[in-house]
Structures are given as C-alpha cells and as structure tokens.
Amino acid sequence: MPNMFFAMSNSSDNNQVIAFLRNNDGMLTRMKEYKTGGNGTGIQKVDPLSSQGSLIVSRDGSMLFAVNSGSNSISSFNISNQGELTLVGTVPSGGTTPNCLAMFGNILYVANSGNADNQATSNITGFQINSDSSLNRISGATYLMSSPNARPSCIAFNPSGNKLVVSELSTNKLSIFPVKSDGSLMQATTNDSNGAGPFGSAFLSNGFLLVTEAGANALSSYAITDSGRLSVISGSVVNGQSATCWVSVNKNEQFAYTSNAGSNTITVYSVNQNGSLAIMRNVSNNPNGTSAPIDSGVSKDGKNLYVLNGNEGTISNFSIMQNGEINLLQIFEDTGLPQIGAQGLAIL
C-alpha cells in the first residue's frame, strides 16, 4: 500500500475526506476527494470541532472513520491496497455534534459534545466494527459524561484496550471507563486534570498517558492504576505558548509534539522512560506566523510530522531528526481544504 495521508474538510454541504500521497521523501501530493455522505459544521473558525481525533485510521490501514458534526453521524470507509477510499456507510452517532473517535480492535467509540444550551448533553457511544468496515451500535452503550456540558475533546483507548479515557474540556476532568469484553463500558472513574482545559491525549505503549492543557498551555503525563485513578508523573509542564491543544508522539516515543494554535508554534518535549517530560524548544510552524496549527500526526515510518494549519487550510511538513528536533520541509498549499474551518488528520 502506498504511504497515504488524509484530511477532512468539515464542509457544511458534503463533508469530504481528501487523500494525499506521501512520497518517499515525505512530500505530499493531493490525489482525490471523497464525500462522507454527511455534513460537517462549516463553521469558519480555527478548531471548529474543539477536538483531537475527528478522523482516524485503523492500525492495519484498512479502514477510515470520520465524524460528520453537522449531521450527527459517523462515516466508515474501506481503504484499498492502492490507498483509495470506498464509502461503506454513514450511521447516526448516538448524540449531537460528534467530534472525536477512538478504536481498538473491532470496537469504535465516538464522543458527542452536545450543544451550548444543554438541550443535547455530552456523551460517548460505542459501535461494533464489522469486517466490511460497517458499524453496528452496541446495545445500551451510550454513556453520559460527568456534566451535561462536559464538552469531550478527545477519546482514547489505552494500549491493552481495557480502558477508555475521555478529556472533558469544560469540567477539567479526565473520565476513565473500564471496557468489558463485549465493548460496553463500566462506570467511569472521574479524575481531576492536573491543569485547566484537558484537550488532546496520546497513550505510550507502556500505558503512560500524555494530555495537553489548553488553559494552562502545558503538557502533563500520568500513570493509570487498575482502578482508573490517575497518578501525575509530570504535572503541567508549561511551554509559554498559547492554545496548546493537540499532541503527537514520535515513533520511538522519546519525544512529543504539541500544536499551539494561538502562538503558531510547535513545542518539542522530551519523554523519559519513566514518563517524565521536559521542554526542548518551541518551533515556528510557518514563517509567516499566522498559520494556527491544529491537528497533527507522525508518519508510520517516524520520519515526518504533519500539522494542519487551521487559519490557512495548508499543511506543514516537518522532518523528524534522530534527536527529536524538527525541521520545516514544506508548507503544502494545494490541499483542497477550506482556508479556515477544516479539521481532522490521519496518516498511514
């Protein structure tokens, strides 16, 4: 299969996933647009979904899933050996304004952020993934957050798939649900975030959890007990930037990269074996200083970091050095994305 890269338009009329080819040198070429069968929000602002993980691919690279926040649905695609997408179906998300996804094995969960007037509350809903990538809702598998307006911003399975962590942006909570063998969940353990505005998250293979904090403009790391309690390893390592919301981890898990949309920078953190964090440096995401970096991802080969620029509709492409440092290679402009209002990024 060719090295592929996907981004989502979030268009209010015919939401689209746009496919790009990653060349051997990491450079991007736009290939094709695919309709999701649903609608995005079309909101013309940076970070319109307030989330990380609105577009995801399966670990084996055979499936892609996207939220349609404007029509309260999820789209599933098959990915061919040539990297082409085939829409399998679109199903109701089990709530209002779905904004992020997580999958483990044949289980998919979506977070529905609800709406501002609390007439539709925040929840998460589970689905069984069939062999053809279609989705069946798991009976009874809809779960409320700690508050009606919790505003979940990221949802993630731990490496063993027996815990599901939800970042609650409005409540400053991290809710951890035990996962049963049938994909349904047990009652959540609700933890206080170390810093304000828990947003994006990423698990390391050893089970440590990294969480960005949009209010503190920081990154925290945690260990998780069997009971679902969080133990802080490095608490709120502040980077001095603004709107620190998204996090990606490099291939050997020794470095993490946060997107700081308000200051147009990427912060490079070192990650020690014990899960402790330290800031290495802040890197300009775009020489013009107006790009507002949002969703990010590291290529499977570990050579490149890609960042969606929420204020330009462009993609910044960085090479990742052995020491974790990043160098800007390319600002890819021919994306087919709206200049402002796109969200979602996934990499094969």
Sequence-ordered SSE layout with sheet pairings:
Blueprint: E1 4-8, E2 16-22, E3 28-35, E4 55-57, E5 63-68, E6 73-79, E7 85-92, E8 98-104, E9 107-112, E10 123-129, E11 135-144, E12 152-157, E13 163-168, E14 173-178, E15 189-192, E16 198-203, E17 209-213, E18 218-224, E19 230-238, E20 244-249, E21 255-260, E22 265-271, E23 277-284, E24 293-298, E25 304-309, E26 314-320, E27 326-332, E28 345-347
Antiparallel strand pairs: 1-2, 1-28, 2-3, 4-5, 5-6, 6-7, 8-9, 9-10, 10-11, 12-13, 13-14, 14-15, 16-17, 17-18, 18-19, 20-21, 21-22, 22-23, 24-25, 25-26, 26-27
* Sequence of strands across the biggest β-sheet: 3-2-1-28
Query: Helical content, roughly?
Result: under 10%
Q: Which residue ranges are poorly predicted, with pLDDT under 50 across at least 5 consecutive positions?
A: none
- Would you report the number of β strands? 28
Terminal CA distance reads 9 Å
Strand percent estimate: over 45%
| CATH architecture annotation name | 7 Propeller
Assembly type: single chain
In N-to-C order, the SSE pattern is EEEEEEEEEEEEEEEEEEEEEEEEEEEE
Number of separate helices: 0
| Integer tally of domains | 1
Name the average pLDDT. 96
Label the overall shape: globular
**Largest sheet descriptor:** 4 strands, antiparallel
Alpha-beta content class:
mainly beta
CATH class: Mainly Beta
The H-level CATH homologous superfamily, spelled out, is YVTN repeat-like/Quinoprotein amine dehydrogenase
**CATH topology (level 3) name:** Methylamine Dehydrogenase, Chain H
**Rg, nearest Å:** 18 Å
